Amino acid sequence: MFAPMIAHSVHSLTLEDIRYFFDADATEENGIPTVNMNLLSETRVLPNAPLIGYDDDFSTMGMKAFDLVMRNMNRTWWGITNYNTLETLLHAYHMAEIWDKTAEKYKTVARLLDPESEICACMTDVENNDVLNYMNLLAFKIRYPGITSGNKTITDQYIEQRKRRSAAYRIAYDLSLQTPAPQAAHFRSLDFDGFDFDLPDVELLGDIAEKLVDNEKVISQHIDSSEHWEFWKNLIKQGMDESGFYDLAVFLFCTLN
Fold first, then answer.
1. For the CA atoms of 234, 59, 102, 87, what is the dihedral angle to 10 degrees?
2. Model's pTM, two decimal places?
3. How many Å apart are CA 164 and CA 31, to the nearest integer?
4. Rounded to an integer, what is the distance from CA 105 to the centroid of its chain?
5. Residue 25 burial by Cβ neighbours in a 10 Å radius (0-12, 13-18, 19+)
6. Which residues contact 212 (CB under 8 A, 6 or more apart)?
7. d(CA 4, CA 119)
8. CA–CA separation, 247 vs 106, rounded Å?
9. CB of 35 closer than 8 Å to CB of 8
10. DSSP per residue over 109-159, as a string?
11. Over the stretch 18-64, which tens digit does the pLDDT of each residue have?
12. E strand segments, the chain
């Protein structure tokens, strides 16, 4: 479950986040792949965590993340499809909590692990250890919510939209939206044999919808009430255990060094 966990944990990491939580000297050529939050770009995965442009007039990472989300709140092509502003903010804070918990493990790993070790060679081989495959899959899930749900009504609509070169990725809420799969679905092992993620979206959507089904549904309970917040709070609490934070720390250390 290493690769899907890593992809989920670093998909929205920025260079500013790396410098704050892990390595103050990290460069723009940091080698950590992330999902491109520009949903209109043909490049769905970036080879390096980008310098995102936090407003340094704010002194805390919380306010910097809040400002970034609010600056982009009217851009339907930025971020995570179908998330409202509160959910986008929650996502930012949730990821920051993961990185904060990993930061202590990172210090330990930095004292004990040789970046030239075989462990690091394996960790950083993202083209062969499936990290890059899962990052691409996550990018598809962000752009096309429900694409791996097995719901043919949803997936067929995405395919038709892309055939028309439509940028209207959002789907209507009358498509029998269901409760999302448990958090464990993020970390399910899949078979990527035969997939070439260098191909454009339109050429991959059909195969992803058919062959990479994990029953992960479209979010139907948005944060618009205290009751729905309880649903989301329980969802994000189904996170990684201590070994997951350690594995993430090892991956980050090996990649940054």
1. 30
2. 0.88
3. 34
4. 21
5. exposed
6. 137, 148, 190, 192
7. 18
8. 9
9. no
10. HHHH--TTSHHHHHHT-TTTSSHHHHHHHHHHHHHSTTTTS--HHHHHHHH
11. 999 999 999 999 999 999 999 999 999 999 999 999 999 999 999 99
12. 34-35, 45-46
Helix axes 201-211, 152-163, angle to 10 degrees: 170
The owner of tokens 């990491």 is: 13
244 vs 175: CA distance, rounded Å: 35
DSSP assignment, residue 237?
A: T
Rounded Cα distance between 229 and 122, Å, is: 39
* CA 49 remoteness from chain centre: 12
Assign 78 to helix, strand or coil: strand
Q: How far is CA 219 from CA 19, 184, 193, 231, in A?
A: 32, 15, 28, 11
Paired tokens of 114: 């040789």
Q: Tell me how far apart the alpha carbons of residues 160 and 75 are, in angstroms, rounded to a whole number.
A: 23
Tens of pLDDT along 62-79? 999 999 999 999 998 999
Residue 1 corresponds to which tokens in the numbers above?
């479950």
The backbone torsions φ and ψ at residue 38, rounded to the nearest 5 degrees and listed phi first, read -85, 100
